Every structure is written in structure tokens, then in C-alpha cells.
Amino acid sequence: MYVKMLALFSIVLAFVISSCAPKQSDIVVSEFGDHQIKMKEFENAYVKNVGSVEAAKKDSLSQLKNFLNLYTDFKMKIRDAEIRGYDQDTSLQNELADYKNKIGVTYLLNKEIVEPGIKDLYNKRKYELRISHIMFRPDSTGDANAEKLANAVLDSIKNGASFEEMAKKYSQDIYSRPVGGDIYYITGGMLPESFEDAAYATEPGHVFPHVVKTKFGYHIIKVTDKKERVPEIRASHILIGFRDAQGKMDTAAALAKIDSILTKIKNGADFGEMAKEYSQDPGSKNKGGDLGFFARRQMVKEFDEAAFNLKVGEVSGVVKTRYGYHLIKVTDKKKYPPFNEDKEELKDMFQKTRYQDKYDSLISKLKIKYDFKVIGKTLDYITSNSDSAVVGNDSALVAKTGGMVIYSFTGNSKDAGQFLSELNNNREYTGRLINLSLLKSAIDKQSAEKLLEKEVSTLENTDSTYAALINDYKNGIYIFKLQSDEVWNKINVDSAKLHQFYDENKNKYKWPDRVSYSYISFENDSAAASAYKQLQSGIDFNSLEGKNSNNSIKEENLQNVDASALSKTASELDKTGDYSKPFLFQKTYCIVRLKEKEPARLKTFEEAKAEVSSGLQDQEAKTLENNYIQSLKNLYKPVYHYDELTKAFKND
Questions:
Q1: Contact of 530 with 644, CB cutoff 8 Å
Q2: Beta bridge partner(s), residue 130
Q3: What is the mean pLDDT of residues 70-92?
Q4: Mean pLDDT, to the nearest integer, of 95-108?
Q5: Domain boundaries, the chain
Q6: What is the CA radius of gyration of the chain?
Q7: How many helices (H) does the chain have, and how many strands (E)?
Q8: Using CA atoms, how far apart are residues 303 and 324, in angstroms rounded to an integer?
Q9: Would you call 315 helix, strand, or coil by DSSP?
Q10: Do the domains 127-228 and 510-602 sit in the same CATH topology, yes or no?
Q11: What pLDDT is stored for residue 549 in this prediction?
């Protein structure tokens, strides 16, 4: 009984201890003063430093300890900045506000528009769809009739009418109408977004249940096929044209010839050799028929369809196009790339095809959110008093409208006079007639910017990633000021200190073996050999200039012996005035003449002054930095729980 009770007590005690133990993320890894650094904060900071969780998990305990020391120092500095009242420093807060203005809107647009947009494109482009559609263009009376007819035809299809027959009868797309509306294979980014959204939401063999509007009109959409997309394939082909040697059409002879080639290939003949021997495509014939890599829709439809249905190494049957008969062999296929590899191309595609619509949609939402209003009475007043005025030269209108509101939204109103004054200074509108259309365009553009700034103004409270970004920048400017106040502005380097530092460290400042020389270069070895013979016959080196070379003699003052092949060659000469044999250097032939050799030696103070100054400043900066950190340690008495770091990057 006692043993059972002891075991039960042990289980209960273990449960209590376990229950009282902090979550892994709440483990305290260091403390200073009344402040704690917990595991989650440490891990987040460490990942930022090394780039990824995967990299962090590979690092040693020693590396984690070193970072904890540095991070604790950093946090003590940030606390010191708070004590000093940096949050009330006007210049620092203005710098932070300026950063928010620059980065905030960019961050918002990237988060709300660009990132979701390119991820949507990436996911869509994993697949390709074969699409048919029936298109109805608006007529002179507007959209209503086109939309009405489109819905009527869609109802007929839902009730059993043939999609293809309806397309041939009603579609106003003259290219796809004859083939029952087929527009072949598409993928994300090729067509208007509303069209693609509908298509990707439809299963193969089905018709999207609603009429879809695009800038081209109204569409009824049917998906006839869906498959994983191969971005590009590499293929070779053999082409036999329809015309004979005399230029006459003879499709029967062409077909017989291509059939005979196919038979040879089936019996083991090499496709590439057959292409070189028989193909009538001059662009690929000599390359064994190789066409390189190409994407969907880059070839004529019949060729494209046959090629993209082949496996690597497979040879097609006879394929007929307007160019003749083809045999096709696929030799390679590219895989769909990972998101990060495709990201820049997707971003470019998104900017060109999707961005503006998404931007306009976001602004519309913000107008509703912030109760945006354009004041019609003010617009009427401006247009009725503009008297054919143009932007840039009507200051009277600015004065007349001062105090009037031209547009407003939550917490903001725009003075019409100020608006017109800004318009006058905007080169985009200079010289244009002030009318209702121009005013609305300018209001739309300016108010969009103001609404985005309004949305950004509260983003720190709603978006933790953005808040962290701003906090990192704030900490950065605080640390910069602390370093200026405690380190850089306190560095004092005078002549006496420089000389003392030089005397203590002069062995660090040395010249290596050096050489000065002249050289002349020649375009070819024969000209250089001729010049060398002239030197051997006693001609002065300087007299070579202009005789045997278009280049002048070049002079090089003291250079490190190892600086180049020229200086190395010069160093191998015995005495001043000696010259080398011609040798190849950077595609020219050179002859080098020795001017002076100087063996390695210590630099004088004047020669080393710049290095000495830099070294002394580095030393003083390190001393001041260490003194500053030590003063913080004396004040906050940090405690480091290194043993807890063994639990870093382990899940709760």
C-alpha cells in the first residue's frame, strides 16, 4: 500500500512540476534590471540575424551564447534610449515619421495587392485549361442588350442546348466561333482576371453558371480540359513540305515521304540523322531538327497540341500543319519552378495585367470604409467660375475657393483653394483646361494617396509584421544616436596620440618589395620581336615609342612586386635600365624596362598616417563602446541563463 501511494505521489508531483513549468516560448534566457528576454523574443531575433529557422537549428550552443550576449547589450541600449527620452526627440520622431510615410504605403500595397496577386497567379499557372467561350459585345445602346442576350443563351445551354452550336450561332469572337468557341489552352495571366477566375472555378466538361463580364464584353465559359502545366518543352522535328522539287503542290508525295521516314525511325534509324538528311526546315535541319525550348501557343496549334501530348523521347505520328507534314520528337520538359524562383517574373506579369484593377478595387473599399465624399457644390462652383481657365495661371480661382471643402473622409477634409494651388504646381496638369473631368481625375489620384496614408496610420495597431518593421527602424535610429553620443562624438584624435599610436604599432605598417618600371605594348608578337632586336642592337628604349607600336610608353611608379605580371617581370631584372624579353600580357605583347627596385621596409609616419588615424579611431571607438556597455552592465546587472539555450528552437 505504501509503495502504491508513493508511486501515485510521484506521478502527481511530476504532473504538478510539469504544469508549473513555463512554456518553451516563455522561458527567460536573460534578465537586466526589471526586464526579461524570453525565448520567443530571442528566437525571433536570432532567426532575423541568420536568415531562417533551419539555419538557426544548425548553429552551436556557443553561437547562441554569443548572440544572447550581444542581444542583451542591444536591449540595454534600447532601454537607455527610453530613459533618455528619445521618444520625445523631435528630430528622431520626424525621421521615424518620414520612414513610415515612405515605407507604409508600399508595405500596404504589397501586402494587400501584390503578394496575394502573385501567389494566386502562381497557383493558377500550375495548371492549364482548355477553354471555349461565347462572347457578346455591347452595342451602341450599351451593355444591357449584350448581357440580356448572353443570359438567354446561357439559359438555353443549361436546358440542354449544345454549347458548341450556340457558339457558332451567337459568338462575336470571329476567331473561335467557327470551332465552337474553342480558344485552346490558357493559363493564369493570359486573360482578364474575371474570365480566369471563372474558368479556374469550373470543372472540365462544365459551363460556368454565370455570365462573366470583361472589358471585351460578356462571356459564357466552358472548360473542356484541365492538366498540370509544363512551362516549356524541347522538341525536334522533321518537316516535309507540300510542294515538290519543281514547286508544285503534291501532298500525296509529301505524305508518302514522311511515312517512309517514320517507318525508318520505327525500325531504329536515328531521329536526328533523319532530320539532317530529309527535313526541309532550314532553321533546324543542320541541328538534327532541334527547335530548342518553347512554351504553349508558340507553335501552330496542330504542332503544339501534338508536341505537348508526347512524353520525353517519344516520336509522334504524322502531324499536318499549314507548313507541311511533321514528325515530332520531344527531348526534354521543364518542371514548374518553385515560387521563389518564379517570383520576379510573376511580379512583372502581375504589374502589367492585374495591378491597376486591384489597386482601384482597394481604393474603392477604402472610400467606403472612411466615408469618402466629393462635395458636388464645390465642383459646380469651380467649373462655373473657371471661365476657360487652364491649370497653372489662375490664382484668382484659388483665392475664391479658399475655405471651401472639395472632398472629405473620416477625420480629414481638403480645402478647395489648397487643392487648386497644388494642382497649379503639378506638371502633369499644367496647361490643361479646368473642367469637371480634370477635377475628378485629380481628386481621384490625390484622394487615393490620402486614403492609403489614412489606412497606414493605424496599421501599427492591426498588423504585427508592420509594427515589428517600424519598431526595428525606430530601434535602429535610436542606436545610431546612442553610438554618436557615446562613441563617435567622443573620439578625440590629436597629433600626439597619432605619433604615440604609430610608435606602438609601427611594425604593422610596412611596404612590401616594390618596383617602378616603364613598359610598351605591341599588337602582335612579330612587332614585339622586331622591337626587342632593335633594343639588343643598342637603340634607346624611349625611341621605340611611335615606331613599332601605336601605344605610348607607360610609366608605373612604385608598385608591389606581386601587383601584376608586369611588376613581377620588372622585379626579375637585375639593374636599372635592363629590359625584358617580349611576353604576352592581357592580349598584347609587352617589353618592360626596370627603373627602380625598393626592398620591403617600414612605412614612415607620414606614409602611414591615414592607416594610423583609422587604427587609432577604431581603437578609441572600441574602448568607448566597451566603457558604455560596462556602464550599462553596472547599472542593470544582467544575468544570462545560458543553460536554457539548449531548449532553443524546440517546439512547445
A1: no
A2: 185, 225
A3: 96
A4: 92
A5: 127-228, 233-333, 510-602
A6: 39
A7: 24, 20
A8: 11
A9: strand
A10: yes
A11: 52
Domain boundaries 127-228, corresponding CATH code: 3.10.50.40
Q: Per DSSP, which regions of 90-164 are E strands?
A: 127-136
Pairing of strands 510-511, 601-602: antiparallel
In the predicted structure, residue 10 carries a pLDDT above the cut 60? no
**322 C-beta neighbours (distance < 10 Å), count:** 8
**What would the grid cell of residue 636 be?**
542593470
pTM tops 0.90? no
SS3 string, 618-651, reads: HHHHHHHHHHHHHHHHHHHCCEECHHHHHHCCCC
Q: For the chain, give the mean pLDDT.
A: 92
Which residues touch 190 (CB under 8 Å, ≥6 apart)? 196
| Residue pLDDT, tens place only, 570-620 | 999 999 999 999 999 998 999 999 999 999 999 999 999 999 999 999 999
The identity of residue 436, as a single letter, is L
- What gap in Å lies between CA 125 and CA 107, rounded to an integer? 25
Report the alpha-carbon distance of residue 402 to residue 168 in Å, rounded. Answer: 61
Check: CB of residue 167 under 8 Å from CB of residue 154. no
Cell of 146: 449584350
Q: Which residue has the cell 497540341?
A: 305
- Which of 43, 31, 34 minimizes the C-alpha distance to 645? 43
Q: Are 323 and 261 in contact (CB under 8 A)?
A: no
Which CATH code, of 3.30.565.10, 2.60.40.1930, 3.90.1150.10, 3.10.50.40, is assigned to 510-602?
3.10.50.40
Q: According to the model, what pLDDT value does residue 96 have?
A: 94
Closest Cα to residue 617, out of 481, 484, 488, 479? 488
Distances (CA, A) of 594 to 159, 459, 485, 572, 625: 98, 70, 53, 9, 49
Residue 454 has phi, psi (to 5 degrees) of -65, -45
Q: Which residue has the cell 590629436?
A: 494
Residue 18, amino acid:
S
- Determine the Cα angle at 82 with ends 80 and 84, to 5°: 70
Q: What residues have CB less than 8 Å from 111, skipping those under 6 apart?
A: 463, 466
Instruction: Report the 10 Å Cβ neighbour count for 3.
Output: 7
pLDDT over 70 percentage in the chain: 96
DSSP assignment letter at 404: -
Cα atoms in the 13 Å half-sphere on the side-chain side of 633: 13
Residue in 574, 447, 600, 438 with CA at minimum distance from that of residue 511: 600
Q: Tell me, what's the pLDDT at 14?
A: 40
Closest by alpha carbon to 80, among 633, 641, 640?
633
Closest of 627, 528, 452, 645 to residue 73, by C-alpha:
627
C-alpha cell read off for 551? 601605344
Which CATH number is 233-333's, of 1.10.1040.10, 3.40.720.10, 3.10.310.10, 3.10.50.40? Answer: 3.10.50.40
Sign of CA dihedral 318, 321, 323, 324: positive
Q: Phi-psi region for residue 598, left (φ > 0), alpha (ψ -120 to 50) or beta?
A: beta
Residue 131 CB contacts under 8 Å (≥ 6 apart), including other chains: 182, 183, 184, 185, 186, 199, 221, 222, 223, 224
Of the candidates 426, 473, 432, the one whose C-alpha atom is nearest the C-alpha of residue 446 is: 426
Question: Which cell numbers in the block locate residue 277?
Answer: 538528311
Separation of alpha carbons 478 and 472, rounded Å: 10
Give the angle 101-104-109 at the CA atoms, nearest 5°. Answer: 130
Split at pLDDT 50, 70, 90, the class of 546 is: confident
